[in-house]
Fold each of these.
Amino acid sequence: MTLYQIDFEPVGRRGECRDNESFLACARRLGVGIISLCGGKGTCHSCKVQILTGNVSQPTSNELEALSSQELKDGWRLACQTYPISDCKVSVPAESVTTPQRIQVEGLEITVHPEPLVRAYRLQLPPPSLSDPRADADRLLQVLNQQHQLHCSQVDIDALRILSPRLRSWNWQCQATVRNDEVIALSPWPRPQLGLAIDLGTTKIAGYLVDLSDGRTLAAKGIMNPQISYGEDIISRITSIIDSPAKSAKLQKLVVDGLNELANDLCTEVGAKTAEIVEAVVVGNTAMHHLFLSLPVRQLAYSPFVPAVSRALDTKARDLGLHMASGAYVHLLPNIAGFVGADHVAMLLATELWQAEGPTVAIDIGTNTEVSLVNSGEITTVSCASGPAFEGGHIKDGMRAASGAIERLRIANDSIQYQTIDDVPPVGICGSGIVDAMAQLYLVGIIDKHGRMKDNHPRLRTHKKQRQFVLVSEEERDGRSAIVITQQDVRELQLAKAAIRTGIQILLETKGCSEEEIKLVIIAGAFGTYINVSSAITIGMLPPLPLDRFRQVGNAAGIGAKLALVSGSKRAKAQKIASRVHYIELATAPNFMSTFSQASYIGRYRMRRGKREEIG
Ligand code: FES
């Protein structure tokens, strides 16, 4: 085995790479985030890097398919397919980098009366004597129960380990942190009681540090899910564990390390310590929930897609590797089904949809999109495999919502007007930009309702036998490759948006409602917050309702996690919501295939019993 020095630019990360280690694996080990949608199989083409100096392995068949001869000549390669045979300098372009990315932590704030499950009590204990030789733990529990009318019966083992010396050094005064009938932490009086709410997404993680005494959010921050290096979508991660079960522990550790770093950053921002976090609530999709708890995930990948557990769970933070107060717990809200997790329950909790008057649709758009229809107190839910297109995956010049991504776009005659994130020169196009682009291409007649690209615009061209529309040309990018929307991209988006529209339609039909009856459509999640609803209607992704019936609510799952953190009754409500949800497996619905094929058409249309009625 030979070791080579690899220099990743422009991040400036340097390290050794074995001759049998791909650039992707090496980058991952050195903490350089390279997008790897397929988890390194060579099929997604998202891990493009440029070899600036040095010698590398011959291109594989996947690379010959993905890269033009000019690109290969210029040193472009797929990081997962390429191995060093000398020291190298490798450039990771912005479109291949996993960070930084816009991660949404904002959402509608709801005021809630705090009823935390964890409370702090001030104690003054009588010192022991020959006439009062009670054990320290008994003394603590008896005084606590007497002074505060409680029924505590146990002390966490880690708290017990420090109890005797600390009580003596604190002169028999202390603060006992109590959860149900257990003392979970001890400290000098007074110490803040902090809580941590986490929305654990497949791509992104949002964290909130909360003061449990009044429910205030003290700090909020988003990070990328570090498991991304093992595959962007959840199925790639599950597959990699099925192929190599030892990876389960690795993936669990990655996410826990990320959460510890996030908690530390949040605490540092407000001058607190992670040991002051006495409770956490975590919500995520079912697969993320299982990976976080080291539960088996194989059964999630195969029909009938059954979770190992769906009820709410409480577990000691230290057993998961989280750095919090000594005996602190993590509460996990209940899941609904294999592909509808606690994040959807949290979203329903935050939006208070169970109180909705008239049919209301709630959509959380992601690689997997969950849709619920709430009507007369009944909640019916489906999960749609919308795929990674809205995150820029499987789109030729797609990227996630990071600096330089085209996020808004308009076609005016022969020119393209666009807006990029951070107003910097464009490097690719993210989900909201792709939806705009498809709507604009349709409105100006460049694609027809079948999604076919015509031959009627100076920006249309054929490249590698495929039609493509040039959004930003090579000249406009000073010689760098053009940013285009290809015929294949349009097809990918048609599948993604058809999955969502089919989910909405099947729910409506199952419950005997029509589209016109929908009173409100709530769109949650980062992508959903930034899409132009009017463009989404134009491409047939959303039903053609008046715009004032749509509400984009931000990260409602994160808000739901915060509510469950500060309020025991909200936690109970979440359990009630989950048990009331009627889940429908979309593929088993009678009209599924006909609805899906109709929903792949572009344009504004209504759907009735799997039939499309164009409304112009
Ligand atoms: S092609 Fe390299 S990670 Fe998918």
Amino acid sequence: MTTTHITNARVFDGHTLLDATTVTLDDQTITAVGAPTAPDGAETVDARGGTLMPGLIDAHVHTSIDSLREALKFGVTTELEMQGYWTPEQRTEINADDTIADVRSALIALMAKGGHPSELMEGLGEHDPRAGEHEGWVMPSAATPDEARAHVQAFAKAGSDYIKVMIEEGTAMGHPGLPVLDMETIKAAVDEAHKLGLKVIAHAITLDATRQALDAGADGLAHLFIDQKADERIVNALADADVFVTPCLVVSSSLIGHDAAHIADDPRVASRLPQVWLDTLRGRFNTFPQGNLQHVLDSVAALHAAGVDILAGTDAAIPVPSHGGVAHGASVHHELALLVQAGLPNEAALAAATSVPARCFNLADRGRIAPGLRADLLLVDGNPLKEISHSLDINTIWRRGGRATNTDGPVSVP
Ligand SMILES: [Zn+2]
């Protein structure tokens, strides 16, 4: 059992900057904030004026053990799987492995037969996430309300932490005319999930799909529509319904045709990521070049102003440049920069990657710095509350109180 006393820190608790300059960790837990002296036998870590914040949460990924390792190198201590694996049994080892990020999962989303995301799986070969250790999993699909209810029941039983529903007819993905779920089927899934106490997160990339998600009673959006700018009507409707939004600006930018080469070129990223992921950052989807990223940024600003919860998510998935512009861990920092570019105050952007996703996903043990919480922490040099790019000036990462890594030169996770 190790006790750590961090001193001389600027402490951002997930909501706001505190007056305190010390945080004490005992074993896996934060035990004190602002204690004037170190407990007996504690290791003291001098933050030298750097900023200590909760470990980051990426609220939209499709992950693997390797990707969870990449994520942790960038201070992302929890990833939220939005279509993939990681039942509670499969993740017992993940939860206990302090060299990789922790994970929660929707398991497999409700989708139409032959609908999204099957168009993304074409021609991926060895990168097909259905292959390998998860061979034998099938992509279930639903066509009727009864099938939707059965899907939700089955995945709730398998351990889904929340239910994901795909509302995608393909235009923004470069595959117009994909099969879709009808409203009755989507509603049946949402109602069943709510009966079982699970939140529903909807994939919706167009305004029409977003309206459907709202009408069906979804709790959160896994993207923000990119086909038009938000008008007052949709902003008010999302605010009134208390729907949270994970805009995934990094992947929206990629869909619209922008790569993330500037992130790959950043030495703080290049030193930590393998070549295949740097190549992926330099790639892009480019399936909706008629889109306008500034419109999406304006929509985020309008939603934030209306009080809608905004969460940082990336949609990071597999290392394939045609699905590029996004990488685990690194892209959370890109997302923070885009949220600030959209007009969110730096504190709100940092909250979007810490306390807000923790609240929206009922992760009561993390996402904030307070006594009794899990000791997932990120110490960066500088002050991301003033200059958001300082979030990448990573000094030390703690996962459950253990030092995951520190970064004198290229990171090596033991
Ligand atoms: Zn996704």
